[in-house]
Amino acid sequence: MTSRTPDQIRDAAITHFVKRAVPKFNKGQEEHGGSCDQRANFEELENEIIDLWFYMQSLKHKLKLPPKGMNCCHCKTELIWGGEYDYDESALGDRPMGQTTLSCPKCTATFDVCLPLEDDRT
Ligand SMILES: [Zn+2]
């Protein structure tokens, strides 16, 4: 994984947020109807916090799992988990994809594993 400057980290995060937030907001407005300003209340906010809590717990669980049985195809050393990213669009098709990056601590090879995501993310 290449290192990024603080400006690159900020810009990538903001670009990704806008790309995801605008369609999600518009979809939510269509699904729930009316204005978010009229619908916002503490009960809705608590529901969102509860969803966030369960997503975070599931992600923590996933991050604790070592990539058992995944060894470098060049030198057979056990690979190190480097990160996991979700993409709405994929170079392999128009399905949402999850990508896991693994690296070899011995020969520095890197591996990207792509898997179609269930389309239940909101
Ligand atoms: Zn290796």
Q: If you had to describe this structure to a student in words, what would you say it looks like?
A:
The longest helix has 27 residues. The protein has a three-stranded antiparallel β-sheet with strand order 1-2-3, with no helix packed on it. A hairpin with a 6-residue loop joins strand 2 and strand 3. With 122 residues, it is of the alpha+beta class. The chain has a domain of 58 residues. The protein binds zinc ion (ZN). Zinc ion (ZN) binds next to loops.
Quantity of strands, as a count: 3
Weakly predicted, low-confidence segments = none
Classify the secondary structure makeup into a structural class: alpha+beta
- Cα-based radius of gyration, to the nearest Å: 19 Å
The overall pLDDT average reads 83
The amount of beta strand, in percent, is 15-25%
Give the overall shape, derived from the CA principal axes: elongated
Tally of DSSP helical segments: 3
Task: Give the ligands present.
Answer: zinc ion
What gap, in angstroms, lies between the N and C termini?
A: 28 Å
* Lateral strand order in the biggest sheet: 1-2-3
Order of helices and strands: HHHEEE
List keywords for this structure.
122 residues, alpha+beta, 3-stranded antiparallel beta sheet, 3 helices, binds zinc ion
What's this, in brief?
By secondary structure, the chain is α+β, with helices and mostly antiparallel strands.
What's the structural blueprint in terms of helices and strands?
Elements: H1 6-32, H2 36-39, H3 42-64, E1 80-87, E2 97-103, E3 110-116
This protein binds zinc ion.
